[in-house]
Design goal:
The structure is a single chain. This protein is α/β, with parallel strands linked by helices. Strand 10, helix 13 and strand 11 form a beta-alpha-beta unit. A ten-stranded mixed beta sheet has the order 3-4-5-6-9-10-11-12-13-14. Strands 1-2 form a two-stranded antiparallel ribbon. A two-stranded antiparallel ribbon has the order 7-8.
Length: 447
């Protein structure tokens, strides 16, 4: 069971009234009443751990039953704090959830119950289960990560600023709604800052402050789910690890978080609807991230070594060496997970010529020839101006759309599936390569 649900379960505030019922109803099936003294004792001991990435089996053991764990996840998948939901206060079923900085009205317990399909949600957890949660875990929303700010672009792209309670650092996530399929994509971060120093990327200019824990990664999904539900945004069915940070520099946490996301007992996301994008610091990076049961993408940006080192100064390996690492990883994956995407941030007269496109076609041939059943897609990303006043990015320019189309045509004429990414959220600095947070003055930069 994912650790996400327990965190929310654990430290939401209760009203310690003379009688306290651990069920959404003041009376009914599964309810048990405890005294003020019992309630006070229940809150006397706190743990510092969270439980978002715990397995269902681990959570079931903690709560004393699989059904209790499943009931919590039924609530959690809505972006609701199970501890608040299963608790009791003077308003009973009319009590509304915590919405943080959102302007939207939170749902009441009754509205949440109406959205549930599991009868266990109505029955409640019981005194012992809540006591175990409160003793062993802390709240996600009050002890792990909170929603600090929400910015919405005219196209509906919504950027979330998540404050991490461990050190008050902040990280950004982006919800991108799609009218054509009435679903949203969530762009998620894996680190605060990034050490790869890509010259065209705002996050790269921050440097690396620290990696996120699996729980902090999943907390972004929790808040995004809540925002979508309360702000009438299409539900999330697609997740891309393309926010702040380099996933390969935090591979263990990223893999653990993705396992929770695709687990049919937890978040229930489709594996093929989650993509981890890496700049590939080493050939082994693909193998490490390949442990995650999701799709892989490679942020190539340039196939010529000299240009690649200009755009990604931390590059230590040749593009051929990195490509070999990707080929070996894909060859060892299941057929469903052999699909991969190569991403190119196109910059005017840096890497956007027809000759660059031809070189990319040639670069792709070993992938196509050596990986059986490979579905290869190239994603062209017209560079977004990050407002740099110094450094290489101060001289970069957005590519002309005619050159982008010419680049695409070269690939298509050689049978390579190629798309041009639509720029979304640039007015709120929520587009690709524009994510950065400013509250970093009190934290140590990690190189």
């Amino acid at each position: 069971m994912s650790r996400l649900f327990i965190i929310l379960l654990v430290t939401s505030s209760y009203t310690l009234c003379d009688s306290w019922v651990l069920s959404p109803r003041n009376s009914g099936r599964g309810s048990s009443t405890i005294s003020r003294q019992q309630a006070t004792a229940m809150f006397s001991t706190k743990s510092s751990q969270v439980a978002l990435s715990h397995s269902l089996e681990e959570l079931s053991k903690s709560l004393g039953g699989r059904g209790r764990a499943q009931a919590c996840w039924e609530v959690l998948r809505l972006g609701v704090d199970p501890l608040w939901y299963f608790g009791s206060d003077s308003e009973g079923m009319n009590s509304t959830e915590n919405v943080g900085v959102l302007q939207s009205q939170g749902w009441s317990r009754q509205e949440i119950q109406d959205a549930m399909s599991d009868v266990r949600v109505e029955n409640g957890l019981g005194y012992q289960a809540v006591k175990l949660l409160n003793t062993n875990f802390v709240s996600l929303e009050t002890n792990l990560a909170s929603l600090a700010k929400v910015s919405v672009s005219s196209d509906g792209t919504t950027k979330l600023l998540i404050r991490l309670h461990q050190d008050d650092l902040e990280v950004e996530s982006v919800i991108i709604p799609w009218d054509d399929r009435q679903k949203s994509t969530l762009c998620i971060s894996s680190q605060v800052g990034c050490r790869q120093a890509c010259t065209f990327c705002a996050t790269g200019r921050m440097g690396k402050y620290r990696s996120l824990t699996p729980d902090e990664i999943l907390a972004q999904f929790h808040w995004a789910t809540k925002v979508c539900r309360l702000s009438d945004i299409y539900p999330i069915d697609n997740i891309v690890f393309m926010g702040q940070g380099e996933p390969a520099d935090n591979a263990a946490a990223v893999v653990k978080a993705t396992n929770a996301l695709v687990d049919r007992s937890r978040y229930q996301m489709a594996p093929r609807r989650i993509t981890i994008s890496t700049v590939a610091p080493s050939p082994e990076s693909f193998q490490e991230l390949g442990e995650a049961p999701v799709a892989l993408a490679w942020s190539v940006h340039a196939t010529r070594d000299e240009v690649r080192r200009e755009l990604v100064p931390t590059t230590r390996y040749t593009m051929e060496e990195l490509r070999s690492g990707l080929i070996q990883t894909l060859q060892g994956r299941t057929k469903r997970l052999r699909n991969t995407m190569l991403e190119i941030a196109l910059i005017d007269e840096i890497n956007d010529s027809k000759d660059d496109a031809v070189h990319l076609v040639e670069f792709c041939q070993p992938l196509i020839q050596e990986v059986k059943n490979l579905k290869l897609v190239v994603n062209l990303i017209p560079w977004n101006d990050i407002g740099a006043e110094i450094g290489p990015a101060s001289l970069y320019r957005k590519p002309k759309i005619s050159r982008v189309h010419d680049f695409q045509k070269v690939l298509q004429d050689h049978g390579i599936l190629c798309y041009i990414r639509t720029t979304r959220g640039d007015e709120e600095n929520a587009a690709c390569g524009m994510l950065t947070t400013k509250k970093t003055t009190t934290s140590k930069l990690l190189l």
